[in-house]
């Protein structure tokens, strides 16, 4: 092999796969053979699987913004280190900044992050949004592609999820609309949207969900009249089949169930269940369940704290919660250690957390550095400023016939 006469290609690839992304980007300039290997889809997949241990959790928080005398919510994003053996502390939390410009009265909205690839859409403050532009963005390699726009019947009642099919190495976006029996699917491999139809109307949504086990998940109400009974609605990314999944049972009989939190722990789906006793005014219990098998659930932990809202679970089994501290009006993100029953502050108590509502933080899957999109060849220059009609860039993507290395 050019540039490495004493190493077999297999050993050379093994060494490269353990390097960080920024080092690999610099090594592409060493020789043509190195550039070909590093930019190849098989190496991208192998590098991704080799570095699964080094990931962060992408968090979203809504903040009020004043524009022309009006207040509307915008989202800000944080990255939280997620290690198996390292306890969380305040140094683990950092902001995620967008290098893009947006039209007035709009703001970016992250749908989810998978394999280092972030799905971003745009939200309009005035709710007049006939079509929705999407972008797939890898901040590590600074590459993004703008997708074909999609026109929806009821765009402001639509809910989006982002997923990945490892059998075809394809990233997909699915958009559902409440009250309409249709769905739209985007495939990165084909760079096109397809419309499909359901055999019934989608119920009202409580929140978007998470991607785990090859399936997207949405939290929905069982019917239009009863807004206290929920189901999980799943979409298998490979087979493109929808299914209903029952949520965990109530942990106690004498309680009301508040809206669940749906998130991910590793490759498993996790549900945070908020229960309030009928007999206690301020009592609140959070029970964390992990999905096992087909429709089964295993109880992980339980905490009773009326002033803490569950966000997600870390690999070291600590919980991330939005915590109000007694004696002051401040609140911030905290790590909860279930075995010690102790909170550790992650977010400084200041006026910054006070700008958002308590409990208004969501987990958007793990995020890790990757080479995804490095094998995409833009046929035009990606736009750095989004508009409602010009955000279209065709891409030519090389798809491997088989994942992994031969």
**Structural domains: how many:** 2
Question: Can you tell me the overall shape?
Answer: globular
In angstroms, what separates the terminal alpha carbons?
17 Å
- Report the biggest beta sheet as strand number plus sense, adding barrel if it closes: 5 strands, antiparallel
Proportion of helical residues: under 10%
Q: Key terms for this structure?
A:
mainly beta, Neuraminidase, disordered C terminus, 406 residues, SCF_F-box_component, 4-stranded antiparallel β-sheet, 5-stranded antiparallel β-sheet, 2 domains
Describe the fold and architecture:
The chain contains five helices and 29 strands. The longest helix is centred in the N-terminal third of the chain and has 10 residues, at about 40-50. About 10% of the residues lie in helices and about 45% in strands. It folds into two domains: about 10-50 and about 370-395, no CATH class; about 50-365, Kelch-type beta propeller (Neuraminidase), CATH 2.120.10.80. It has about 400 residues and is mostly beta strands. The protein is globular. Strands 18, 19, 20, 21 and 22 form a five-stranded antiparallel β-sheet that branches. A four-stranded antiparallel β-sheet has the order 3-2-1-27, with no helix packed on it. A four-stranded antiparallel β-sheet has the order 4-5-7-8, with no helix packed on it.
